[in-house]
Design brief:
By secondary structure, the protein is of the alpha/beta class. It contains 32 helices and ten strands. Strands 4-5-6-3-7 form a five-stranded parallel beta sheet. A three-stranded antiparallel beta sheet has the order 8-10-9. Strands 1-2 form a two-stranded antiparallel ribbon. A hairpin with a 2-residue loop joins strand 9 and strand 10.
């Protein structure tokens, strides 16, 4: 019973006092009320209609969006539970794993293949066995599947030949082939919490969503907040279903069904409806409070406070277990929690286990909080010191598992960062960044480099790699991801840490490359000029021989930019400077680029030396294994032969270019190059051969119009 507000010495604000008149509820009374499904029949029917329609939908899927607790996951669960013979691929994400490549898709795909969730010494053997059953003809590219599953298979020459730009396309083709080979029939891909999907998973899923338009597959994504948000997984051509609060009528129906055994007065139900605002999770919490206490007088006025109030009713052993689980994330492995409890010397009795089980959903070894808000509230309820200590213990537990073959550098970096252990954060974040690069996950790599940099600065780290090295690495992966402004910012940070003119020149050469990639050619030339100025100063000050390689690289970049701008005289001059420097320092890549620029300029000028220069460039690109350079030069040589009238040689170069592009994973480029051969066949009246090429090119390009979002 409320007694009013009183001022108490030592407290700035008045305190609300209550008289304890008796016990009105149970300790451990976590929300036991499960509201029946109500008020979403129209949305459910629309989803059923989509999944029952034949393949060939014009949309990429469905996005269910709305506020936390409004019922998105409940609608998705009701839908997937009603599917009968349809296969459901369940995927989920959480904030803790946004820096982990393919975290959102790995677990679901492993379960689909019948693989253990954990990486173990036997994982590669088991994965190879399973892939041999399903996609034996794709063995050369199995390491790409392993990346997506967050497992390890030794790389192959075919995978090594793939360029970074074409790797996502090849990976998508392989995952599509895998799903088709499993012969699953109608498939629903259910993605929970799309706003937290990691970048690698988001790229793969966005491309996979486009594939659902020609297959009996449907992707359904839940996301918190506005559907227009660009965070996480974005489907640009999806049907958007806003999930609104329940109407007062639907709220009343749900509560009456839920309280059949313990009915409340209509006035109480109306008060609950008004206070909840139609949010089902808040509605159920208020309903439980009303049943436990018989009144809404002291009921929380918001959903987060309602969840906190329920957590406060848990006994200490139960709350201790829930708090430890919250440190592991919204989703975690039961074996991880068991290890953590063992480290804390906590034995869970049957009563505590029963209370804890009410708060989690279990799928094999994977456990998840029934709602992310419960996890967040449990985590925030602990003191900063307690959270830091538990993250340290979780990190130590995962280090022990790593020694047994279960390596997860991204998770280790996360836990030790939360534990404020900068030395271990630096070590594992750097390792996680390198692993992300190997999996072609540039955004995740960039974030791990940022985490390593922050830890290294606090440590005043001066060893290898240096903080400057990490800024340069971050700039490189951001450039690969197409995030040019962020890459330039990272280079500015590296420049401030550059101690010599030669180091500053290196930064400017990299800056020029980023500006060139972004199409800012004037800015690229300006950075190139600054690089040359720093190199001249370095030479005057007696810098080491490394300045020759930088000068060669800078000159080659300038030559390429001049060529793109149509400034061929300046391009030739820069290419000749490149050759002079590259010959002295042995920089074959710069030399190959320079000969390529000279070949292009000669072709424009009608000079007969174009072919000879092009062959020199091609031979150099072949010597250093640069497949992009090889493809570019064989295509250019094909163009040169065509305009020279040597159609047979043009066909030979185009076919060679297509073969290189195919090995590099550039399937669309290969198809377009073969289409050039088809055009020549048309000119030669070889109509049947031309038709065969055009049909094959269309088949190669039509299924996968990929825009992988990295």
């Amino acid at each position: 019973m409320a007694l009013g507000s009183f001022t108490v010495k030592g407290k700035a604000a008045a305190l609300q006092l209550f008289e304890v008149v008796g016990e009105t509820g149970q300790l451990n009374s976590w929300n036991r009320i499960e509201l029946p499904f109500a008020g979403r029949e129209q949305e459910l029917a629309a989803l059923r209609q989509l999944v029952d329609s034949p393949a060939g939908s014009s949309s990429e899927g469905v996005v269910l969006y709305g506020d936390a607790g409004v019922g998105k996951s409940r609608l998705l669960a009701q839908f997937t539970d009603s599917l009968g013979d349809h296969v459901v691929l369940r995927l989920a994400s959480e904030p803790n794993q946004q820096m982990t490549p393919y975290a959102a898709v790995a677990g679901g795909l492993r379960r689909l293949l019948g693989l253990e969730l954990a990486e173990s010494p036997q994982a590669e053997v088991e994965l190879r066995r399973r892939l041999a059953d399903v996609i034996p003809t794709h063995a050369a590219y199995w390491p790409l599947v392993a990346d997506v599953l967050r497992l390890t298979i030794a790389t192959t020459p075919e995978v090594e030949a793939l360029t970074d730009a074409n790797r996502p396309e090849r990976t998508l083709r392989l995952i599509v082939a895998l799903l088709e080979a499993l012969d699953l029939g109608s498939v629903v891909i259910a993605v929970e919490d799309g706003q937290w999907v990691d970048a690698s998973s988001a790229g793969l899923l966005a491309a996979l969503a486009a594939e659902t338009q020609s297959r009996p597959w449907l992707m359904v994504v839940t996301r918190r907040g506005d559907v227009a948000s660009q965070d996480g997984l974005v489907l640009n051509d999806a049907i958007a279903f806003p999930i609104e609060p329940l109407s007062p009528g639907d709220s009343m129906i749900a509560m009456r069904r839920a309280t059949g055994a313990t009915p409340l007065h209509r006035s109480q139900l109306e008060a609950i409806v008004a206070k909840s605002g139609g949010n089902p999770l808040f509605l159920s919490a208020l309903l439980q409070a009303a049943i436990d206490t018989g009144s809404l007088e002291t009921a929380p006025d918001s959903l987060p406070r309602a969840i906190n109030a329920q957590l406060n009713r848990l006994d200490p052993p139960t709350m201790r277990v829930v708090g430890m689980a919250s440190v592991l994330g919204a989703r975690f492995r039961s074996s991880h929690l068991a290890d953590l409890l063992e480290r804390e010397k906590i034995v869970v009795d049957s009563a505590t286990a029963e209370h804890v089980d009410r708060m989690f959903a279990v799928d094999g070894d994977e456990v998840s909080f029934r709602h992310g808000l419960i996890r967040d509230a449990a985590y925030e309820s602990m003191s900063f010191r307690r959270r830091r200590d538990l993250h340290r213990r979780a990190g130590l537990m995962m280090e022990e598992r790593a020694r047994r073959g279960e390596q997860d550098d991204a998770a280790l970096a996360f836990h030790f960062a939360a534990a404020k252990d900068d030395a271990k954060t630096f070590r594992y974040a750097h390792r996680a960044a390198l692993a992300s690069e190997r999996a072609f996950a540039p955004i995740e790599a960039a974030e791990q480099y940022r985490r390593a940099i922050a830890a290294g600065r606090r440590l005043r780290h001066s060893g290898e790699p240096t903080i400057r090295d990490l800024w340069l690495s971050r700039a490189r992966v951001l450039d690969h991801a197409g995030l040019f402004d962020d890459a330039l910012e990272a280079l500015s940070r590296a420049s401030r840490l550059s101690a010599s003119p030669q180091e500053r020149a290196e930064v400017e050469v990299r800056r020029a490359r980023v500006q060139q990639h972004s199409g800012s050619f004037v800015a690229a030339l300006a950075a190139n000029t600054r690089a040359r100025s720093h190199l001249a100063r370095s030479h005057r000050e007696g810098g080491d021989d490394g300045h020759r390689a930088l000068r060669a690289s800078a000159s080659a970049q300038a030559a390429i930019v001049f060529q793109v701008q149509g400034r061929f005289k300046e391009a030739v001059r820069a290419a000749e400077e490149t050759i002079a420097e590259a010959v002295l320092c042995g920089d074959q890549h710069a030399l190959a680029q320079a000969y390529g620029v000279l070949a292009g300029a000669s072709l424009v000028a009608g000079d007969q030396s174009a072919a000879t220069l092009g062959v020199q460039s091609l031979e150099l690109f072949e010597a250093i294994g640069d497949r992009e350079g090889q493809a570019r030069m064989t295509n250019n040589l094909g163009v040169e032969a065509y305009y020279r009238g040597d159609l047979a040689q043009a066909i030979a170069y185009y076919e060679r270019c297509a073969q290189i592009a195919t090995k590099s994973g550039a399937v669309i480029d290969a198809a377009q190059t073969r289409a050039n051969i088809g055009e020549i066949f048309l000119q030669q009246n070889r109509l049947a051969e031309a038709e065969e090429i055009f049909v094959q090119s269309q088949q190669d390009t039509a299924p996968l119009a990929i825009g992988v979002r990295q």
